[in-house]
From TrEMBL:
Protein name: Copper-binding protein
Origin superkingdom: Bacteria
Signal peptide (from-to): 1-22
Keywords assigned by UniProt, alphabetized: Signal
Length: 108
């Protein structure tokens, strides 16, 4: 193959390679998707460890049935928003190997 043909082919392909790289990654697109909130009831709050115990419905996104379990919270200030016995709606994700509450609001 001649050098000039190779240079021409590279020049034609280069703009398309840049366009392909500019597309958002599937993970980034999924992160922008709305998160489904799950109903629960606060059973225990431990501000020292940054954890709360929640009796919750099924966590469909994590393939978990309804149960009572301990969760870390993404932001310790979340623990100041609730008290034991409160009905809540929350979102949870697996973060660094731990189930973590990433969103929290009072149930309506």
């Amino acid at each position: 193959m001649k050098f000039s043909t190779l240079v021409f082919a590279a020049a034609v392909a280069l703009p398309f390679a840049g366009a392909a790289m500019a597309q958002p990654a599937p993970a980034a697109a999924a992160a922008a998707a709305p998160v489904a909130l799950v109903a629960g009831e606060v059973k225990k709050i431990n501000k020292e460890t940054g954890k709360m115990t929640i009796k919750h419905g099924p966590l469909v996104s994590l393939d978990m049935p309804a149960m009572t379990m301990v969760f870390r919270v993404k932001d310790p200030a979340m623990l100041d928003q609730v008290k034991v016995g409160d009905k809540i709606n929350f979102a949870v994700e697996r973060a660094n190997g731990a189930m973590t509450v990433t969103q929290l609001e009072a149930a309506k």
